[in-house]
Amino acid sequence: MRLRRALRRVLGFAPLLAVLVAAPVPAASQTVIESFDVEAAVLPDGTLDVTEVIRPRFAAPRNGIYRTIPVEYQTPQGFNYTLLLDVISITDENNHALKYESSRERHYRKFKIYVPGAAHATRTVNLHYKVLDGLKFFEDHDELYWNVTGDEWELPIESAGARVVLPAGVTGLRATSFTGAYGSRQQDADVQVAGNAVEFRMRRALSFREGLTVVVGWDKGFVSEPAAAAKVALFLRSNWPFSISAGVFVVMFWLWYTRGRDPRLRPIVPQYAPPDGLTPGEAGTLVDNSADMRDITATIVDLAVRGYILIEEKEKPHLMGLWSNKEYAFHLRKKPADWKELKAHERELLEALFAGGATESVELSELQNKFYKNLPAIRDRIFNAHPALSSAASAGLCPRGPWKAPARSKASSASRISSGMWKRTALRAPSRRRRCSRNSCRLLWPWEWRKNGRARSRTSIGSRPSGTAAPTVRTFTPWASSTTWTK
User: Fold this and answer.
1) How far apart are CA 202 and CA 256, in angstroms?
2) Residues 144, 131: contact at Cβ < 8 Å?
3) Residue 255: which pLDDT band, with cuts at 50, 70 and 90?
């Protein structure tokens, strides 16, 4: 039973097999390339001039042929190397221009060439183009490594050959070839060197996706090698992502060269005295726009140099001489009557040190917790001593420093509080406020603070006879510049 079922199935497919066997072979498979001849001329400037003569034989009506040329390779370092191919002309056997379309497909340059009358006839297609970077340059020789036919043909090639012409007088000429599919090491072509030309001819036909590659080498000096700039341009053209970083580098270098470089240093001439009759305190204030303690200290030293005071360093013993420390004493050398030629800040400094001339000697330790009270006045005198400092301070260009904070009005303080613009420099409100009267004085809790213009309290304020007037209460408002009195 099983055998009969199998025979029935085979006999059922018999008519279909008969139709497939009797069907004619597609006409496209009968179209072949009768001959593929290439002449490549190596010019002295390094350009490769290539002329291809392709003779297809059409067994059925077709629109034309495809010519696929490999133009992109990969270097041993992993970079791309693209052949710059420039088409000159595509003509027929009568030198009439043929219509074609060019496109890029993977690492190939693909030409779609329209051939009129491509039906049961043999036609000729002449493809003429130049390659700007088709040569390789080594230390001891130059070389042409060229894929003559390409390895993407879907039609068999019955005959293939190539002729490479080099500049006249070339020496050290050697050549070899490779045939077959991509990556093949077969050498089925005859190689003949004659003068400055090398001829290659296949000994067999090339079948589906097979091709011919030629290698020709010669001594250096007969072909011009591209300059370094041209090599960089070719490299960036083949590896265009690198051109983005190179462009960014060029732009940043231009910005640095035109705007970011430091000015050229001029000769530095040392100056051992303050300019324009400035005192050390004024000069230091002009440098950093601030009258610091070091500027006041420099003024003290300058007064000692000019003979107004004497600075004495001495050892001060403690505990019957068991240990001692250094102490500095200031001695007044000139009377207050001789201070008229001094500037205002210098007179203010001397008055602060020697109590207006009442004492002639003072130790540094005695000034502790006293001298700081005179610092704001001394600093103001420094700013007012010179027109440059005074004008800069009045224009707001030279701040007088943190010792002189601007006063704030009630309105500005209230606006800052209402808008929530608190700063670290603002006064903090205490957690409890003080309320005093004639009979008692205590602190108020937050819920007892002033509200809606009246002072509210859940407890009594001291003891007072009934019917008497309420005591006077003083409510402290820490963020305002004055106090508020309420009844």
Assistant:
1) 61
2) no
3) very high
| Residue 262's pLDDT band (cuts 50, 70, 90) | confident
Give the separation between CA 483 and CA 487, rounded to whole angstroms.
13
Tokens 């809606």 map to which residue?
Answer: 452
Q: Poorest-confidence range of 77-91, 107-121, 438-452?
A: 438-452
Beta-bridge partners for 327: 314
Q: Cβ distance 434 to 478 under 8 Å?
A: no
| Contact between residue 197 and residue 165 where contact means Cβ atoms under 8 Å apart | yes
Contact 384, 377 (CB under 8 A): no
Q: In whole angstroms, what separates CA 139 from the centre of its chain?
A: 38
Q: Which residues pair with 317 in a beta bridge?
A: 324
Measured at the CA of 289, the angle between CA 288 and CA 293, to 5 degrees, comes to 75
- Distance in angstroms (rounded) separating the CA atoms of residues 227 and 221: 14
The chain-wide mean pLDDT, for the chain, equals 77
Dihedral over alpha carbons 55, 60, 65, 70 (to 10 degrees): -90
Tokens at 229, concatenated: 């700039």
Distance of CA 440 to CAs 187, 434, 462, 463, 471, Å? Answer: 121, 11, 5, 8, 10
Quick: pLDDT tens for 341-383.
899 999 999 999 998 888 899 998 888 888 888 999 998 888 8
Nearest to 62 by CA among 105, 112, 97, 12: 112
Confidence of residue 35 (pLDDT cuts 50, 70, 90): very high
For residue 158, the SS3 value is coil
User: Is residue 483 a contact partner of residue 477, using CB atoms and an 8 Å limit?
Assistant: yes
Residues in CB range of 282: below 8 A, 6 or more apart = 274, 382, 385, 386, 389
Rounded alpha-carbon distances, angstroms, from residue 43 to 49, 192, 446: 7, 20, 99
pLDDT of amino acid 21? 41
Q: Which amino acid is at 52?
A: E
